[in-house]
Amino acid sequence: MVGTPVSPPYQAPAGQVSTSNWIGWYRDKTTCGAGSTYWQYTYTGTHRTPPTGSAPVAGGTLTFTGMTVGSYAVCLLYDDGYTIIGSPHHPHRQPLPFKAL
Questions:
Q1: How far apart are CA 25 and CA 31, in angstroms?
Q2: Whole-structure pTM over 0.85, yes or no?
Q3: I want to staple 24 with a disulfide (CB 3.0 to 4.6 A). Which of 39, 52, 65, 91 is the partner?
């Protein structure tokens, strides 16, 4: 079953703004790291890396569609790696529930 689109806002702290920052969703987990269920680069909103010479964007929103209903941890991660930065950052609390309408 597929849930409704989810559009989390994100904000990277100064000094950690990168065109390769990304948001990862982790189904049935309370931590973030390798093995995300869904993910997108914040700059492109896709799995494609930004064009060379692109200016990084510190914050905004991304829309995720086609996610299955369930509970997820969600994190903003730095520069194509697994360092958790800014917001969203929900790895140490109950995963976020998303339900179909």
A1: 10
A2: no
A3: 39
